[in-house]
Automatic annotation (TrEMBL):
It comes from the Eukaryota. InterPro entries: RNase_H-like, RNase_H-like_dom_plant, RNaseH-like_sf, RNaseH_domain, RNaseH_sf. Pfam families: RVT_3. GO terms for molecular function: nucleic acid binding; RNA-DNA hybrid ribonuclease activity. This is RNase H type-1 domain-containing protein. It comes from Gossypium raimondii (Peruvian cotton). PANTHER family: OS05G0353850 PROTEIN, POLYNUCLEOTIDYL TRANSFERASE, RIBONUCLEASE H-LIKE SUPERFAMILY PROTEIN.
């Protein structure tokens, strides 16, 4: 990264060059400053919904920051009394797959679902379908305190900003979020892709089987293996 034309790198090869950041004018323009520490960069990260994810911690260089952010983090249990529903979707080769997994505060899978369709669409609309199915599943389980997790930053940000969003996607999400009234509390969170392994792995089953499947705590062996693999890794 030392070949990138930040002012700090230019100052290393050009004597007398001012390496102060031209945007905030308050610090040297190193790469970590450009990507994270500059107030302008932080505004962009906050606007993208990543303020609690990528702004924590102090780093001297960019690579340490990136490695720390992308370190593998597994699924985490919700607080007692909460049910966590992980939703995911993918679109590939003219096929759409959505998958939903509900787990209690002990980490036990209590219900799940995957659906396969030979229907090509933009992935964000598939993610919206997964979100919709997740809310439906939580309603069937009569969940009181719900956490919905998705690794789609676009979906999560649109849900959080739905009252300000006037595009078609925002209107659809506002409609779906009326279901929030069926719960005592609802939290919608973005998670790292590595924290969504079970929902993600169900995609492969759906594609391989080209079918739909609802399952409860007596889930099939192949799903059992996916869940056990995540629990021990």
């Amino acid at each position: 990264h030392n070949i990138l034309l930040t002012f700090d790198n230019i100052a290393r090869i050009r004597q007398g060059f001012n390496n102060t950041c031209p945007r905030c004018k308050s610090s040297e323009e190193t790469l970590i400053h450009v990507m994270k520490d500059c107030p302008k960069a932080r505004e962009i990260l906050v606007a993208g919904g990543l303020n609690n994810i990528m702004l924590d911690g102090n780093y001297n260089n960019c690579i340490d920051w990136i490695e720390d952010f992308f370190v593998k983090k597994g699924w985490t249990k919700p607080l007692t009394g909460y049910v966590k529903v992980n939703v995911d979707a993918s679109v590939s080769n003219g096929c759409r797959v959505v998958r939903v997994v509900a787990r209690d505060h002990d980490g036990f899978v209590i219900r799940g679902y995957y659906n396969f369709k030979e229907n090509s669409m933009d992935v964000i609309w598939a993610e919206l379908e997964a979100f919709q199915e997740g809310l439906k599943l939580a309603e069937k389980l009569k969940v009181a305190q719900l956490i919905v997790e998705s690794d789609s930053a676009t979906l999560v940000n649109t849900v959080k900003k739905r009252m300000k969003d006037i595009i078609i996607m925002g209107q659809r999400i506002r409609q779906e979020c009326k279901a929030f009234n069926n719960f005592d509390s609802v939290q919608v969170k973005w998670i790292n892709h590595n924290s969504n392994n079970v929902a993600d792995s169900l995609c492969n089953l759906a594609i391989r089987n080209k079918s739909d499947l609802y399952f409860d705590m007596n889930y099939p062996l192949d799903i059992h293996n996916i869940i056990i693999h995540e629990a021990i890794n």
